[in-house]
Design goal:
348 residues; mainly beta; Jelly Rolls; 9-stranded antiparallel sheet; 7-stranded antiparallel sheet
């Protein structure tokens, strides 16, 4: 369950070479230049996307990868989208204004979509459909505009698993254990399967992204570990040398903390409820030095589950991780879990 993991530490990587083409289902937004510090010469533009220096652009700057439909486009001299549109401020997934999502305006006056794949005529994208924000059909407990896992906060990163891999310039992946653990991407979902005869088989991924001072790491559980798999799926706030896990196991949800380099401790658990526990997130506050596991239904009615002891947590080095597989002890071959919608929230 992670005892074989090798932490990548705090590393903000450049988001790869910049190119104009590219359908991307990964989105990274910014609010200050500090959010773009992993890019050489990175700066946060007024529309909420990072840019980098570019000698071939009239403005001297080009949007970085993972900037929605403006990825690779020149920033225009007014600091707007660079594709004949107007800046609308940092993207906000809590409301919609017609087809797609409000990350800016296109040449035709429609709204830009966070995921660039899909049908412009119908306003649908892979996972992002007209009138929604890519999070199912949730509208929040009181109705109104579509809700997001971030509530009153802001979605600063969204991964929808549309293109067959996690972006390698953002995610580092690895595996451990004698049992084989494989990952596949299908219909915009990520599934981990194992083949094991009693030994463990684990897969994990760690994001090298700058994170807000107060935020949350989120995913949506589609299919939890089945009976007979001794399976596990987790989202983790990794703040070496400590880690705070929120895990789905067979029939339960579990809070786990790392107590040493090679030891983990289960600190709380409850029976799994497929309705009430559809969404999982680990909420942290760097200033307050707190980390809390929370669970929610489809309407994002977040309920506290467990508050971690954060002694010895390195909050300056905090990053998001996901993973899972088989813990061992069972002979099992098949799918262990399926998840969707990885999200990093800014809750400030």
């Amino acid at each position: 369950m992670g005892s074989g993991r090798t932490a990548v530490g705090w590393l903000i990587v450049a988001m790869g070479s910049v190119s104009v083409a590219g359908c991307q289902a990964s989105l990274f937004t910014c609010q200050t230049d500090a959010n773009c510090e992993g890019l050489a010469g990175g700066a946060c533009e007024s529309n909420g996307f990072c840019s980098v220096p570019a000698d071939d652009c009239p403005s001297g700057r080009r949007y970085a990868d993972h900037s929605g439909v403006v990825s690779g486009a020149c920033v225009d001299t007014s600091g707007s989208t660079g594709v004949s549109g107007t800046s609308t401020g940092a993207p906000d997934l809590s409301t919609t204004s017609g087809p797609g999502d409000p990350t800016g305006t296109t040449e035709s006056g429609g709204t830009l979509s966070l995921a660039e794949s899909g049908d412009a005529d119908t306003g649908t994208t892979a996972g992002l459909t007209q009138g929604t924000t890519g999070f199912g059909t949730s509208t929040g407990a009181t109705g109104g505009p579509p809700a997001t896992p971030c509530g009153d906060g802001t979605v600063v990163y969204l991964e929808e698993f549309v293109f067959g891999e996690l972006p390698p310039d953002i995610w580092t992946t690895d595996s451990a254990g004698a049992g084989a653990a494989d990952v596949r991407f299908d219909r915009g979902e990520l599934t981990v399967s194992v083949q094991t005869t009693g030994s463990s088989g684990l897969w994990w991924a760690e994001a090298s992204l700058p994170v807000p001072d107060r935020g949350a790491f989120v995913f949506e559980m589609i299919e939890p570990p089945p009976e007979g798999s001794n399976g596990v799926a987790w989202v983790v706030a990794d703040a070496g040398p400590r880690e705070a896990y929120l895990e789905y196991r067979v029939g339960t949800v579990v809070a786990v903390r790392r107590v040493s380099a090679d030891a983990l401790e289960v600190v709380d658990s409850m029976p799994y409820d497929p309705q009430a526990h559809r969404w999982a997130r680990v909420v942290y506050d760097k200033e307050a030095q707190t980390i809390e596991a929370q669970l929610a239904d489809a309407a994002f009615d977040w309920q506290p589950f467990y508050s971690f002891d954060t002694t010895d947590y390195d909050f300056d080095g905090l990053f998001m991780g996901i993973g899972g597989g088989a813990l061992g002890g069972e002979t099992f071959e098949g799918d262990v879990f399926t998840i969707d919608n990885l999200v990093i929230c800014d809750l400030q």
